[in-house]
Amino acid sequence: MEGNLKNRIGIDLGTKMSIKKAIEWAINNNVKYVDVCLDDHLSDPPENFNRDKDKIIDMCEKNDISLGLHTVSSVNVASTAPYVSEGVDNYLNAYLKVGENINADRIIIHGGYHFGDDGKILDNSLDTHGRRTNASIERIRRLANSVSESGPTLLLENLFREPDIDGLKYIPVTLDECETYFEALESKGVKWCFNPPHSRLFPEGMDGYFETLGVNLTEQVRINDNNGTIEEHLKPGEGTIDFERLFELIESEGYEGHYMLKFGTIDDMLEGREYLIDKMK
Questions:
Q1: CA neighbours within 13 Å on the CB side: how many for 116?
Q2: Cβ distance 261 to 223 under 8 Å?
């Protein structure tokens, strides 16, 4: 999708609206990219989304809207527990089925987490990583193999570091972990959901992550502000990210994709979009 800078800045509405209402909102607010989370609606079978299928597809096509579905990071894609693991597979497959039914362009996924108990090695080809990392990569690989030729693109987001006092360890968070995931998954069509605020919590920073993984892997850039020490979803200008430099870094490499806002209220994001447009000029 080509267009001016404003058209390339989307808004993640989370669970605030159903898919149909989110698209109607996007039309009314001249937002061309919108992501939604289905978690308030997945208690119904995915087939129930067929009721509004034709309407959703028609609204998106007529108004040039790109629709994404965003899974939640609290669902542990790295789980190896009996019964729980099957539930995680069902969760991801439900997102994929809905995404294919309504012609969604992308599904944002996560690698999961462990509690410092990554455990023994299961796969010799990944012999520097533990069993939960292996389980995560294999689960995403299975999901990618299930995507139809015309189905949504899977976008893996780099996650964030929790404070050291917290035992929970998200994956992938470090640059090395991200490289391991994409070395295993890029051939399966999995692309990168680049989260600069997350990457600046590590020594390589935003520049290091983007320069290493590259513009060709990048399908979405998620935007909020932080102070570079902990995970925060601040409104742009409330933290310390230099957005002018960030956009120069990304755009100078030829990135033509979209940016996705996720912070505060819906009004905060609409105001943040105007703030960022000034920074992108």
A1: 6
A2: yes
Q: Is residue 178 part of a domain?
A: yes
pLDDT at 279: 85
Residue with tokens 């002018």: 244
Decide if 1 is inside a domain.
no
Q: Are 74 and 84 in contact (CB under 8 A)?
A: no
Instruction: Look up the CATH number of the domain holding residue 142.
Output: 3.20.20.150
d(CA 280, CA 184): 34
Tokens of 190: 């999995």
Spatial separation of the C-alpha atoms in residues 9 and 212, rounded to whole Å:
24
Question: pLDDT tens across 23-43, in order?
Answer: 999 999 999 999 999 988 765
- What single string gives the DSSP state of each residue in the chain? ----TGGGEEEE-TTSS-HHHHHHHHHHTT-SEEEE--TTTTTS-GGGGGGGHHHHHHHHHHHT-EEEEE--TTS-TT--STTHHHHHHHHHHHHHHHHHHTT-SEEEE---EESS---S---GGGTTS-HHHHHHHHHHHHHHHHS-TTSPEEEEEP--PPPTTS--EESS-SHHHHHHHHHHHGGGT-EEEE-HHHHTTSTTHHHHHHHHH-GGGEEEEEE-B--SSS---BPTTSS---HHHHHHHHHTTT--SEEEE-SS-HHHHHHHHHHHHHHH-
Specify the pLDDT at position 52.
Answer: 85
Strands 169-170 and 218-223: unpaired
- Asked if residue 44 is part of any domain, the answer here is yes
CB-CB contact of 180 with 152 (8 Å): no
Q: What residues make up the domain containing 134?
A: 6-280
What gap in Å lies between CA 19 and CA 29, rounded to an integer? 15
The answer, yes or no, to whether residue 3 has pLDDT greater than 70, is no
User: Which amino acid is located at 281 in the chain?
Assistant: K
